[in-house]
């Protein structure tokens, strides 16, 4: 368990996405997760849409506007050395705004009916010039 945490600690900030409070509450409401501690290698951000917050035990790198029982990873290793009774959570991996700009250009035709190997003779080659 802590090898996974160590691997995530070495990750860059883009690969340690923040987790919102509402998503954490939704994950901790799942069956079999009551009385367990949420473990997040990253930031937990406040969510103004959440009216009532569950009583939670949380271990995270950084928590904005803290409240409830919160542990650091040092305290967690002393508390439960094997990581028993914990649930490892993470934010959405592709939640960053930059992922909206990836992929084909908005005006490009996206046809599924035609195969891949048509109109390949001469003309403009795939390697020559700009092609959407």
TrEMBL record:
<dbReference type="GO" id="GO:0003735">
    <property type="term" value="F:structural constituent of ribosome"/>
</dbReference>
<feature type="domain" description="Large ribosomal subunit protein uL15/eL18">
    <location>
        <begin position="4"/>
        <end position="132"/>
    </location>
</feature>
<dbReference type="InterPro" id="IPR036227">
    <property type="entry name" value="Ribosomal_uL15/eL18_sf"/>
</dbReference>
<dbReference type="InterPro" id="IPR021132">
    <property type="entry name" value="Ribosomal_eL18/eL18-A/B/_CS"/>
</dbReference>
<keyword id="KW-0687">Ribonucleoprotein</keyword>
<comment type="subunit">
    <text>Component of the large ribosomal subunit.</text>
</comment>
<dbReference type="GO" id="GO:0005791">
    <property type="term" value="C:rough endoplasmic reticulum"/>
</dbReference>
<protein>
    <recommendedName>
        <fullName>Large ribosomal subunit protein uL15/eL18 domain-containing protein</fullName>
    </recommendedName>
</protein>
<dbReference type="GO" id="GO:0003723">
    <property type="term" value="F:RNA binding"/>
</dbReference>
<keyword id="KW-0689">Ribosomal protein</keyword>
<dbReference type="Pfam" id="PF17135">
    <property type="entry name" value="Ribosomal_L18"/>
</dbReference>
<dbReference type="InterPro" id="IPR000039">
    <property type="entry name" value="Ribosomal_eL18"/>
</dbReference>
<dbReference type="GO" id="GO:0006412">
    <property type="term" value="P:translation"/>
</dbReference>
<dbReference type="InterPro" id="IPR021131">
    <property type="entry name" value="Ribosomal_uL15/eL18"/>
</dbReference>
<dbReference type="GO" id="GO:0022625">
    <property type="term" value="C:cytosolic large ribosomal subunit"/>
</dbReference>
<feature type="region of interest" description="Disordered">
    <location>
        <begin position="113"/>
        <end position="132"/>
    </location>
</feature>
<comment type="similarity">
    <text>Belongs to the eukaryotic ribosomal protein eL18 family.</text>
</comment>
């Amino acid at each position: 368990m802590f090898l996974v945490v160590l691997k995530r600690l070495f990750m860059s900030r883009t690969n340690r996405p923040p987790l919102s409070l509402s998503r954490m509450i939704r994950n901790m409401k799942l069956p079999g997760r009551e009385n367990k501690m949420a473990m997040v290698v990253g930031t937990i951000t406040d969510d103004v849409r959440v009216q009532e917050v569950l009583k939670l035990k949380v271990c995270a790198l950084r928590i904005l506007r803290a409240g409830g029982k919160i542990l650091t990873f040092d305290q967690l290793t002393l508390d439960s050395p094997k990581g028993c009774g914990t649930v490892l959570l993470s934010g959405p991996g592709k939640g960053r705004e930059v992922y909206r700009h990836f992929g084909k250009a908005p005006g490009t035709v996206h046809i599924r009916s035609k195969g891949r190997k048509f109109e390949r003779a001469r003309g403009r080659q795939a390697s020559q010039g700009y092609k959407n």
